[in-house]
Design brief:
Length: 254
Amino acid sequence: MATPGVQTPATLRWTSGAATDQGRVRSVNQDAYLDRPDLGLWAVADGMGGHTDGALASRTIVAALGRIPHATRLGSAARAIRATVQAVNQELLDQSATLPAGDLIGSTAVVMVAVGRHCAILWVGDSRAYRLRDGVLAQLTIDHSQVQAMVDAGLLPPERAEEHPQSNVLLRAVGSDTLLEVDGSIQRLRAGDRYLLCSDGLYRELDPRTMATILANLAPGEGAQRLVQRACEAGGRDNVSAVVVDFLAHRDGP
């Protein structure tokens, strides 16, 4: 679904679109997304746990983020996102405490907020943010996963990470630890940038070249829909979600 564009005060405007699907294997969609161009705020969350619990976790994150007021300063916006995610983390931990030992209500989360000519990206888990700039697709987040830790330690070649049997083992998630660290980065925006937030059900099915081609040739709403569709056609082994955001030059005139 595409959403209207919003003009920033610093001569950039944005437009965005999002899509999600339960895939071809799962019976329930535990993904959730936030597409709020009016707030300059976007997110994807990928729930974990039983069908109901995973969906509850991801939707709780997205609903809480959607209540953050519009920010005019990037630093305060990033702090509000981090505090919101950490508050939801405690809420999910409290709910997990009522379940049988070992049961988990958790979710990954990747969030982007834009103010002026910069954006902040914050994340927990293995949902990712990418940027397409001048035809080059760059991954902007680092997975909090067992295989990424093995790659970082030089124990596993990057090209073998996706096929490793522990590729779905997370080291960090919302709802998993009392003291949750939310990683973040600041990116300077350029007119023509296109950003993608997605769950692992997307990038595990599609190679970067396919993702870049789709992003480069379709508007945000159509691009998000096509990415999700192609991931389902490629196997759809997990839920799939995509949020695509364009940053464009200000148009002169009314």
